[in-house]
Automatic annotation (TrEMBL):
Identification of the protein by name: Single-stranded-DNA-specific exonuclease RecJ
Record GO terms (molecular function): 5'-3' exonuclease activity; nucleic acid binding
Record organism: Alicyclobacillus sacchari
Ranges where the DHHA1 domain occurs: 360-443
Highest taxon above the source species: Bacteria
Gene3D superfamilies, A to Z: 3.10.310.30, 3.90.1640.30
Amino acid sequence: MQPLWKAAGVPNEDAACLAERLGLPTRVARWLLARNIVGEDEARRFLFAREAWTDPFDFLDMRGAVDRILAAVRDREQIVIVGDYDVDGVTASAILASELEARGAHWHCIIPERVADGYGLAPPLVERAHQLGGTLIVTVDNGIRAQAALEAAGKIDIDVIVTDHHEPVDELLTSAFAVVHYSRHADPERARALSGAGVAWKLTQAMQAVDPRRPGSTPAQFHEAWLMGLAALGAVSDMMPMRGENRRLVREGLMALRSCQRPGWLLLCERARVDVSKLSVSDISWRIGPRVNAAGRMAHAGTAFSLLMAEQRSQAADLADEIERLNVQRRQATERATQEAIAQVESIYGPSPDAVVACGEWPLGVVGIVAAKLVNHFGCPAIALAQMEDGLLRGSGRAPAGISLHSAVALCAPYLSHFGGHDAAIGCGLQMTHLADFRIAFARAVADLRAETRDVDAVSSENMIADDYLPLSEHGLELLDWAQRFAPFGPENEPLQLFVGPVEVRQATKLGNGSHLRLRLVEGGVEQDAVWFQVPPLAAARLESGLPQVCAFLVEIEENVWQGRRTAQLLVRRGWVLDAPVLRSRFAAVYRLLRQGVTGVQALLHALRDRGEVCAPQELAAILATFVELGFAAERDGAYHVIEGKKRDLRDAMTYQSLVREHLSPLDDAEWTGSGLGE
């Protein structure tokens, strides 16, 4: 039997024990255990923000890197930072540049132009650094595959320190002065969670530990808070795993950014219409990050870097206006390219592909966004390629959780001129003549990886709808406060999503422009409101018409503050209609008959029929199996007898969950023709 939620596999006694030890509701303990947070100490760290910082010197080359940089600062050498054009690369560049500036170093930052320079440190950039008088290059968010550039630097006596978080090649970077990367770390798996900005931040932490002296007018605590805030921006925007140290980094980094007074940062938030005092992860993901990215996607990322580094409001205002203009261009180009890519994929692959590759005359800067939108639309790994003037196709790929995109693309290496990245995102290039073969190879590679990782005996989390179910009677501020302790959310720590249902929809009221609904939900004697934004039109029409009345919803609990009053609000993400056999009234009728001494299956069917209840034999079998599973009844020689015991919710039974799953139909499913009317 396939459960509907992850917490279904949590033993009741384990949840009760953890809840008692930590003094928290049993339901919250279920959520922790369902996320494999099993130990008391681990749970305390997770809930009460006690994650430990890792030692920056766990990077095996860190001390050598720090000593070389500090020597360059002391000797007034020209240090050249080579960054990247996405948010992670721009913030990583700003982190190291801010630290060098605070130390009075001579530095220059080169961020490659996406089309002209391509990704990462390359021999032409080494030559540019040489022309600037550079004797030390420090890469941030790139360089782990830059063997050719390292060899070029060695020939002209430029030392190179590589700091990066992307997947390495098999060959060691023997020409680098130092390599600060998870592959050279005391605990590589733990270090993999850091973004490029996170690695750069660790580098500055190590510099401060070795030589805390920092001339300049900015107080140390404000400087260090700014660096942490930049690292948080990089981690969120690069969708790094939100576990362990990263959760603390993002949590405390957001706090630092909320009080930051740097003019570039404040104007960036102002243009994005973000209340900086209430800055959230979603603000970064949907408002701040896209604007920083827009500079590198549509023109040059140096504009975003200069904005973050700006110290005068007048200078920052011009840069913020330019980024806003580029962001408008980015949205328009992305919308056009996405529509074309979806149509192309449907034409080539059909409606339910396993992996897709789209190609078009699109700006190179938007193909990463297009790939992400293809993943959301089709639910599979996707690569979007832009046609370049030289006949080369260059692009980006994204993948849903559970698939290593880098591993899949590595299996297709013979068709590619270059590729790099990590599990969730890659960049690549190939000749147009190889496109057809690459499409076939990529689909085969994804299928092979799925086959290798599939455990036929395991319950697939992809088929689970929610983290847990939520009785409406438990919804309130106390549960909201506990749910907020699971934040910040991101990969490997997704927002808590809870199954509400079966519930009666008593009322559906339009909100705003009519595309949103406020739903009045009733479960037993409890009523609660839920809000559903951007309701699919067919679902909205059905709910407003009163058909169906009995539904189920996937919800998140969020805070709502109105006129100074704080409430817990249910935010609907998905909705289903449930057909009549799932109704609790049917279970109640059978239970009453059992208590009255009607114990045989045939006798129960006849008694239900006499009371006007139409119940198929297989439905009655599921009801009785649910009672046995929950300990409400026992079966002996074909007869069922009531057992008095502790009250439990029907939804705790796997049998009941399977029955609910069998009768779920999406509210926007045009093929649904059932009634789903009330009890």
